[in-house]
Design brief:
The complex is a heterodimer of chains A (436) and B (315). Chain A is built from 19 helices and two strands. Chain A has 436 residues and is mainly alpha-helical. Chain A has a domain of 223 residues. Chain A has a two-stranded antiparallel ribbon with strand order 1-2. The longest helix of chain A is centred in the N-terminal third of the chain and has 32 residues. Chain B has 315 residues and is an alpha/beta fold. Chain B contains ten helices and 14 strands. A six-stranded mixed beta sheet of chain B has the order 6-7-8-3-9-10, with helices on both faces. Chain B has a four-stranded antiparallel beta sheet with strand order 2-1-4-5, with helices on one face. In chain B, a hairpin with a 2-residue loop joins strand 9 and strand 10. In chain B, helix 3 packs across helix 4 and helix 3 runs parallel beside helix 5. The chains are: A mainly alpha (436), B alpha/beta (315). At the A-B interface, helix 1, helix 4, helix 12 and helix 19 of A face helix 2 and helix 3 of B.
Amino acid sequence: MINNPEFKRNIWLELSVQRLIAVPVLLGLIFYVAIQNDSSGAISYAIAKSIFVIVTILWGSQLAFSSVSDELQNRTWDNQRLSALSPFKLVWGKLFGATAFIWYIGLFCLVMMLFTTHENIQANRYQIIIGLILGALITQAFAFASALIAAKNNVAIPRGLNLLFIVVLVPIVGRMIYGSNQPTQAWYGHDLSYWGFVNVSLLIYTAWAWLASYRIMQTALQIKTKPWAMLSFVLFSAFYVLGFYNALSIGNFASLAFVFAILMTYLGALTEKRHLASLRRCMNPWLAKTPEKALKHTPYFLILSVFCLIALPFTSLDSTFSSFYSAKSLREGQSFVIIGLMSLLLMMRDIGLLYYFSLSQKPQRAVMTTIFYLILLYVLLPLLLPRTLGFIFFPLVLAPSVGENGVPILVGLVHCLAVAGLLYRQHLARHKALSA
Amino acid sequence: MNSMPLIQVKQLTFEYPGTRALDSVSFTITSGSITALVGPNGAGKSTLLRCIAALDYPLSGQVLLNDVDVLDDPRASHAKIGYLSDHFGLYDALSVRQCLTFAAASQGVAADQIDRLVNQTAEKLDLSNKLNSLAGDLSRGQRQRVAIGQAIIHSPSLLLLDEPASGLDPEARHSLSQVFIALKQSGMTLIVSSHILAELEDYSTEMLVLKDGKILQQQIVNETPLQHMSQIEIELVHIADASKLSELVANIAGVNQLEIVSNVANLQINEATIARHQLIKLLIQADISINRFNLQETNMQQHYLKAVNAESANS
């Protein structure tokens, strides 16, 4: 018997005798009717495939999401956090326990797809079936990870939030599975079988989503972790994407890693706890000169920012992307290093703003308020103001001339200092209010 | 009773945005006690319990459980803690047996022990005849007991209960009190938060008064539940008898001298050890002339109000 109480609990809830009997009866009837009216087998195959997609991808991701959000709603999440269950057991117990019923349905569909024979059905049926299974696994894993992020931060999760993931993820996965008839995929100069490549990619990114879930669960259970997983993901993604361009070099690798790190930094800042306590928890071990402990408490956005800073000088080494960017830049010839440095400064400003609103007395709408101000800073002000003034708000692309690379950096620094000033003023006000 | 400190809270500070929920809170809880954590709504009781359980991380300070910092190693301390939140969480679609089985298994109880512990816990909480009922079909009092069962099934050394009796009828409250007393007798240490003082009086041995995130008072009432403690005011005929009285009470078990001013003495007696009429008899035997012997109505409510009033006067 599987020794995972969380998995067993989900099985108790999901697999009742009635359900176990009802599924084969109902699916049997549907397939029977389909077979009776379909001499070619194509319709039966399409019906089985559609049911599989609807059940495992749409319903499955909803269930994976609910396996965490229901715990919050039913106030059982604290009990889980206090349990002796390891994060590994909790992750797979929830992810596969909560979706056990839909995999039970999916199994009948897969059997139907495997045994439907017709010459019109694609020859690569097995690869498509593997792709569908991996597609379901990856959407479920992403939905689960997103619910865990909200649970970790004690945020009430709207039930429909996972629809967002479905809207974003399903077309990507769908395009990979359905959208291409190309036989091969070029990667680092090798012509690989398209389906083999898609399925291995899906498998690898599913594994990343599982690892992310495991790491977030560790944080939710207050197990301190070092930031190697996030950094590894950034490096792997840079390596993976470079394969499509067959352009592996230190400069290109550093450039892409830099871009991924910037994206992940924003994601980290948005999804991590933004409390005064978490900042102090990070600061204290650094002040006590215990870097081992400090690393476990340092927010990802800070670690990734340092990584960006380290990667930046390497982006100028033999980088196709740097040259490409410089050529396509609004300011022709602008160095990628300068652009990168400005991006870093603006990113610090944006995260500073996010923290400013998060540490305010009404932090509930911090993310939305920050997004509003960022739209103002990045879009509205540069569009509404004349170019010279717009540059003050968006030095990234609207710098005055090529020869003055120092100026946009200076403006970026001013932005950072302004936000730092706001944060300092907020700190003083809090101190004053508490001592009053 | 073992008087070793089980929990030491040192300079604990916790902030919600714009509010300091706990302000440099320090206290010690001895092993085998039942501590009533009292205070008005918003005093910081739930936050304090959550910090002790390492469910929330404070701004600063330390919580030591058996000298181990729970904030440094929350997972290790969770095995020793049972926690019942004010919104006790149950899986409504599971039977009581499944709820308790899951709780035991998830707390790492050995598989061959689970059935025995489930039956034992159900018996302790008077749930034996409800084991096959769905948790969602039970009354509030029964659900409360299932939630307590989940929290104690792994025999934690510390049980934290946040407003456990809220919403219960008087009968269910009384039955809950009996459960807490039984748990204490089995060696468990309990911290029970509530703003309904009457219910805490039945079983508490210590009282911790919290207001605006600060500890106003920690009253240790020896090992005896507060309901057994009485406060007596004695007015002596002769002031000269005051020293004789003081000498006498020092040698009587169960009697503590609180204060003697002029010819009026305030004593605290543990009526489980010595009855009032026995004390009067001893006073007469010692040839102490008494003008007046008054029973002061001192209950938890008064202890609490005294602490709160003293704090108001100071501030």
